Amino acid sequence: MKSNHEIDFRIYGEELQCVEIELDPQETVVAEAGSFMMMDQEIQMETIFGDGSQQTSGLMGKLFSAGKRLLTGESLFMTAFTNLGQSKKHVTFASPYPGRIIPMDLSSLGGRLICQKDAFLCAAKGVSIGIEFQKKLGTGLFGGEGFIMEKLEGDGLAFVHAGGMVVERELNPGEVLKVDTGCIVAFTSSVDYDIQFVGGIKNSLFGGEGLFFATLRGPGKVWIQSLPISRLAGRILSLATGPRREEGSILGGLGNLLDGD
């Protein structure tokens, strides 16, 4: 018997997706602040301390659970949506940037999933949302985005979002996949995660990529995103603050002069 609430869902859209959760009477879904889109009238919205999981009990447990969320850059509080009506009701959550919403059935993934610290969107009540420190020295020193990750535990449904397209890979025992740290969305707990140095002075100086990448060693499932939000934000920032580049334009800088820039 599942300890988490069992919820039904439907995902709408292509590039800018939202997920509609169907709640039976007294069922609850928890979500990150800022992901709410709309809900039916008889759903009650309540701010809770920590993740509201059934695994967390007592004041100290709740304080510890909420404190861990601060390390991932998230709020101390989450929002719980409970159906107080007598029939099925719906609540909808939206992805914060273009990409995909991925439903994760934790009961079929070993009860534990490691994901990028900004990937969690919402989950059935009872799913525990904590942090996962990557313990290896290389990861700790150079991991960047991948050093502190979120840990989802339980036997219910959780939803994570990713930027751009998502590639799902099943790694065989001993099979290694090398990935940019920001492109990792999630992986099952059986996957071994580490950081590897990109060797070669020419690679380091002229490669145009980071000096380190993640290595994921099977067995297990991994989900990879084509457009991490950090990469998108960095490109927008560089275009907003630096001189404009006219890729493919014959006019180049002359075009900027003609349009007043």
From TrEMBL:
<protein>
    <submittedName>
        <fullName>TIGR00266 family protein</fullName>
    </submittedName>
</protein>
<dbReference type="InterPro" id="IPR016031">
    <property type="entry name" value="Trp_RNA-bd_attenuator-like_dom"/>
</dbReference>
<dbReference type="InterPro" id="IPR036983">
    <property type="entry name" value="AIM24_sf"/>
</dbReference>
<dbReference type="InterPro" id="IPR002838">
    <property type="entry name" value="AIM24"/>
</dbReference>
<dbReference type="Pfam" id="PF01987">
    <property type="entry name" value="AIM24"/>
</dbReference>
